[in-house]
Amino acid sequence: MSVTTWSIDISHRDSLIKAAFEAKEFAYCRYSNFRVGAALLTTTGEIIKGANIENASYGGTICAERTAFVKAVSEGKRFFTALAVVTDVKSAISPCGMCRQVIREFCAQNMPILLVPADYEKRLADGVTDGGVKETSIGELLPDSFGPEDLDRPRG
After folding, report:
1. 54, 65, 140, 149: which one is catalytic?
2. Cβ neighbours for 22, distance < 8 A, ≥ 6 positions apart
3. What is the DSSP letter of 83?
4. How far is the C-alpha of 152 from the C-alpha of 46, rounded, in Å?
5. Burial class of residue 10, CB neighbours in 10 A (0-12, 13-18, 19+)
6. Which of 15, 57, 99, 151 could form a cystine bridge with 65, CB 3.0-4.6 A?
7. 39: three-class secondary structure by DSSP
8. Torsion over CA of 70, 75, 76 and 81, rounded to 10 degrees?
């Protein structure tokens, strides 16, 4: 399945990526040592940051993407135009399955999701124009997905 994403302007893209890196600094990941930062852009231009927060029980852990969505939705923000995710890995890392389902709940199928490598700034300095960012969408990451509109389908 190929889903064309809509585009965001370069200033929003740069601010969103910067915010994801900032969010990563607050990750609480003493068990996995795998820091993740996420930044969510609302339709009003506000950026909501999230970091992964681990828990000794492991099951209580919440990913950075879900942290950002929980913060946003609990404050009444439910309309988004882009998401950026960054880790300490030098390649683009995709959201987990649970995060994908949460993204699907609140975002258009073609909303841009920017998967940012840890060495983004170095790549830019080396002349890689996009910094190695992989741009995708929830339609590509979660094809044939189940969403809120499916609950309205007739049964029987």
Report:
1. 65
2. 37, 39, 49
3. E
4. 31
5. exposed
6. 99
7. strand
8. -60
Show Cβ contacts of residue 59 under 8 Å, excluding neighbours closer than 6 positions: none
Give me the helix-helix angle, 64-74 and 10-24, nearest 10°: 110
Q: Which helix (H) or strand (E) holds 120?
A: helix 120-125
65 is known as an active-site residue: yes
The two structure tokens encoding residue 56: 């000794």
Which structure tokens are listed for 129? 């124009």
Average pLDDT of adjacent 10-residue blocks, the chain of 156 residues:
70 96 98 97 97 94 98 97 97 96 96 98 96 96 93 91
Q: Kindly state the greatest CA–CA separation across the chain.
A: 59
Tokens of 3: 């889903």
Please, which residues bridge with residue 115 across strands? Answer: 85, 134
